[in-house]
Design brief:
Layout (H helix, E strand, L loop, with lengths): L2 E7 L3 H11 L7 E8 L2 E8 L2 H5 L10 E7 L14 E3 L2 E9 L2 H10 L9 H16 L2 H11 L2 E9 L6 E6 L4 E5 L2 E5 L11 E4 L4 E5 L4 E4 L5 E2 L4 E2 L4 H4 L7 H6 L2 H12 L4 H8 L7 E6 L1 H18 L3 E5 H4 L10 E7 L5 H12 L3 E6 L5 H5 L2 E4 L12 H20 L5 H23 L1 H11 L4 E6 L2 H17 L2 E6 L16 E6 L5 H13 L3 E6 L10 E4 L5 H22 L18
Parallel strand pairs: 16-17, 16-18, 18-19, 19-20, 21-22, 21-23, 23-24, 24-25
Antiparallel strand pairs: 1-4, 1-10, 2-3, 2-4, 5-6, 6-7, 7-8, 8-12, 9-10, 9-11, 11-15, 12-13, 13-14
The structure holds 2-deoxy-2-amino glucitol-6-phosphate (AGP).
Length: 601
């Protein structure tokens, strides 16, 4: 979504702000802008399109030591220069990430008070409201305190006022914002990568809190202007995290981190004994039903989790897309656990679904990557995956880490339900120890997946089929391909093909079949024969050794326990999607129209 950066300090602000915006590009955007105080005036420069278009308009040596910058992912109003941030009204200039939901109401009120608006954005209205309150309060902190009581919806605001040329202010509700300290001055930013070049020390601004930042001091207040102390965080990853470590794309770098991510995530909750699983997952004992709610790839982890928890935990699991769940009638009760899954911890629909469950007094668990994110802070319990900062818009390592958590949950529940007996349990434990090596080996076979990608990348449509847990994996495989290569692809339950879709199969139509579930293997093989008979080009991924000439391409993955198998199965499919997209010269890390974190409905 939108990216915010602000700086006040001893050094020129323009270079720092532009660097910060460049580090936030992964969030997806369609315009960019900067505002800074120079010679007692606020100067605002903004432009449609990429940051490079903005840079051409700037003098990087201009004497300015306080400023704010913004990359906009359009929500209200088209992507153009007028709607780009920062927005100014009266003495104030602001940048905003989120949606002010009562902007229409505020707009009417402000127009009646003589304000008029140039842009179509809710942000300009928010700025006008702040200006209007300031005219009464004549104090910025009191103004912002009142603003947090007036605004409804999600916002992270960076604010400057010409009456205080040495202070930068910030307020937030729901949308993420950090405040960072360095020796040369202090920052606000939407996310850590924006400031990593300058510092790795930062504070998390909580909902309805206000921050006042000067070059030497950072002060936090609650909504009623009571000063609050905050713990400082240190980002463990170094700048390399935000760089590509020699890989051509963040996505490829992050795929190659998956063995470490698996190990870091598993080891945080599992020390090789069932006691560690009891310690971390015993809280699950009381639930008789589970709703898993998420969006996109996170939803797909829930689809895998459903099969595992039902098969081993004997607990009914309902998996829903958050944008539906938040509005639908839910049949949950005190015996239900609602699990929300989110890499960013900021996805608006998932956050809304979580808040709905909370409002209905239903217990909630969040499986999240970003520490201190909104979802993490609201859920009753949080299980953090240890995927580190994921930059590529198309998730890979976070998806795999989420699967690892569902594996641990299912192992614990399987042991408790006695579906998994001691002998099987120790076999699984042994395989868990092997998994990082098996993951790495699977990744290292990338050339064979790339060779297949080189044969199919020109196709306009590609099908994925699978049964049971392999169908869940095919959903994620299809999304990976779609979102980075722009090729239309569909994931289908293999048994469903004959009920309509098979009419789309022509000669050489690529069909990627996933068959790892031994109980369903023969059935999937017969579906492969159906599409082969109609001329399909079949790529089969399986943990079985294939004896007869069943397919055109075969990807063998290691045969591990079903509770772990999906973690290996997805890897060739991630790499296949990557190479297809690369061959099609797509913007792999920042696919068109997409954002890393969808913080609006
Ligand atoms: C995944 O590759 C996509 N970028 C997208 O579907 C993503 O999984 C979805 O938007 C959910 O994001 P979250 O995990 O941060 O909530």
């Amino acid at each position: 979504m939108c990216g915010i950066i602000g700086y006040v300090g001893r050094e020129l602000c323009i270079p720092k702000i532009i660097h910060g915006l460049q580090s936030l590009e992964y969030r997806g955007y369609d315009s960019a802008g900067i505002a800074y105080i120079s010679k007692g005036k606020i100067k605002t420069i903004k432009e449609k399109g990429k940051i490079i278009n903005l840079e051409k308009l700037l003098n990087f040596d201009e004497e300015a030591y306080l400023g704010i910058g913004h990359t906009r992912w359009a929500t209200h109003g088209v992507a153009n220069k007028i709607n780009a941030h920062p927005h100014s009204v009266g003495k104030f200039t602001i940048v905003h990430n989120g949606i002010i939901e009562n902007y229409n109401e505020l707009k009417e009120e402000l127009i009646n008070k003589g304000y008029n608006f140039k842009s179509e954005t809710d942000t300009e209205i928010a700025c006008a409201k702040i200006d209007e309150i300031y005219k009464q309060e004549k104090d910025i902190l009191k103004t912002l305190s009142k603003a947090t009581k007036v605004f409804r919806g999600s916002y992270a605001l960076g604010i400057i006022c010409i009456d205080e040329p040495n202070s930068l202010y910030a307020i937030r509700n729901t949308s993420p914002l950090i405040v960072a300290k360095s020796n040369e001055g202090n920052f606000i930013a939407s996310d850590v990568p924006a400031i990593l070049k300058f510092t790795n020390k930062y504070f998390l601004l909580d909902d309805l809190e206000i921050a006042k930042i000067t070059m030497d001091k950072v002060t936090f207040y609650n909504q009623d202007l009571i000063p609050i102390d905050k713990n400082i965080n240190t980002f463990e990853g170094s700048v390399e995290v935000a760089l590509k470590n020699g890989y051509e794309h963040f996505m490829l770098k992050e795929i190659n981190e998956q063995d470490k991510v698996f190990k870091d995530t598993i080891n945080y909750y599992f020390d090789g004994t069932i006691d560690s699983l009891k310690k971390n997952f015993k809280f699950l004992d009381k639930y008789k039903k589970i709703d898993i709610v998420a969006c996109g790839s996170a939803y797909h982890t829930g689809c895998v989790g459903k099969y595992l928890i039902e098969n081993y935990g004997n607990i009914p699991v309902n998996v829903e897309v958050a944008s539906e769940y938040r509005y639908k009638k839910c049949f949950y009760d005190k015996d239900t656990l609602v699990i929300v899954v989110s890499q960013s911890g900021e996805t608006a629909d998932t956050l809304a679904a979580l808040k709905k469950a909370k409002n209905d007094k239903i217990d909630t668990l969040a499986i999240v990557n970003v520490i201190g994110s909104s979802i993490a802070r609201i859920a009753d319990k949080v299980i953090y995956i240890k995927a580190g900062c994921e930059i590529a818009v198309a998730t890979t390592k976070a998806y795999l880490a989420q699967l690892a958590i569902f594996s641990l949950i299912s192992i614990y529940l399987g042991y408790k339900s006695k579906e998994i007996k001691d002998e099987e349990l120790y076999k699984i434990f042994k395989e868990i120890k092997q998994m990082p090596k098996l993951i790495k080996n699977t990744i290292n076979n990338y050339e064979s997946y790339f060779a297949i990608a080189d044969k199919i990348y020109k196709n306009k449509q590609i099908f994925f089929i699978g049964r049971g847990i392999d169908y869940a994996t095919s959903l994620e495989a299809s999304l990976k391909l779609k979102e980075i290569s722009y090729i239309n692809s569909v994931a289908y339950q293999a048994g469903e093909l004959k009920h309509g879709t098979i009419s789309l199969i022509e000669k050489n139509t690529p069909v990627i079949a996933i068959a790892t579930d031994k109980n369903l293997f023969e059935k999937t093989i017969s579906n492969i024969k159906e599409v082969k008979a109609r001329g399909a080009y079949v790529i089969l991924i399986s943990n079985e050794v294939i004896k007869e000439q069943l397919c055109d391409e075969f990807i063998k993955i290691d045969d591990v326990h079903p509770i772990l198998e999906s973690i290996l199965t997805i890897i060739p499919l991630q790499l296949l999607a990557y190479k297809v997209a690369k061959n099609n010269k797509c913007d792999i890390d920042k696919p068109r129209n997409l954002a890393k974190s969808v913080t609006v409905e």
